[in-house]
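dude i think i finally got it to work??
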Amino acid sequence: MTFASLGLIEPLLRTLEALDYQTPTPVQAEAIPAVLKGRDLMAAAQTGTGKTAGFALPLLQRLTLEGPQVAPNSIRALVLVPTRELAEQVQQSFLIYGEHLPLRSYAVYGGVSINPQMMRLRKGIDVLVATPGRLLDLYRQNAVKFAQLQTLILDEADRMLDLGFSRELDDLFAALPSRRQTLLFSATFSEAIRQMAGELLRDPLLIEVSPRNAAAKSVRQWLVTVDKKRKAELFLHLLRKNRWGQVLVFAKTRKGVDELEGELQRNGFSADAIHGDKPQPTRLRALQRFKDGEVQILVATDVAARGLDIDDLPLVVNFDLPIVAEDYVHRIGRTGRAGASGEALSLVCADEVQLLAAIEVLTRQTLKRVDEAGFEPDHRVPATDASGQVLKKPKKPKQKKDPGPGGKVHLGRWFDNDEKPAAKAVRKAPAFGKGPAKGSKPKKP
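look at this
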């Protein structure tokens, strides 16, 4: 199968040839013809399978061949995404694929000034990529209008719900024209997403090109158990021992990201960080430095789990396990992309065992455990498996205490045998004038 056989026009085929895109991926092979026919679509595809091209290519073709010219402050297609990083990535894809087409695309998101975005929208935009909160702000200020909207695309819709965008989405859906094409793309589909799809989509074509919530088979996954307080020490040890090249590291909190970044830099490693407290230009600069190979280690929170598209990234490290099991799939999906192989290592401590069990149930596999000499944890991580069971640690048998020399036994203090306190406490007599002791009967006069 070729892209030409899917019905794409010559300008798009020329671009794909320049990009050396030779054969459509499974999701592209199914999605492109359906989108060209105007069908609604619900596509589940794991990250790295080319789903962005699966909707961007046919959408660009339809906008080129159909519909009127876009009016001021109007848009013809809307792509909703959960994060700023993903908005930038999707927008870049539209720019690349639409190089030879007379269309305008733009991305809007929070964390930056809204005024330049309002100025760009005045001339009208064919394809707008947006995060829900910023788009709603623009709509309420009449900076964007939806009367000309032909196609709505929800990319990573499950993540938008995870991040608490459900109210913004409801407000936006109410403002959009009911007659439109709707495409819902995601790596995973929760029941909430399926319910939303039932309300938004009309007779959709369902595409599932991989097992539900499965991790990429091209990624080798394993874990090392360690005490929580020694995670940074272990990570530094593994960096030196294995002489790793570029590494993307995920930590649970913004504070944890900053602390790990500082520890790496103090030990002579080039490291940078991305999290929600950093300004957008700083985050984009850090990502670009990592892509260009200027930085060896990029430490991030889950804000970077989706939307990071890095060529030939060999290794992802889960310094902390994610609280939401589905985020594990997206984290490790940053490596092993487009058919390449990759590795994913998790550093797991005892209080993360339930998170580990949830991940193994989701991915339907038990992660291989590898011990690292010198870092065996004092607090053992109980065994888990893909059934979700956590196998409790066997209780250690109680050891009899040695009474020691001189016939002494330990009862909180040392006593000689003839000094052991009585087994029963002596009841205290009531104090004079305080009445009878509690529970005693008063004497008859």
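The two ends are 110 Å apart (CA to CA).
im so relieved honestly
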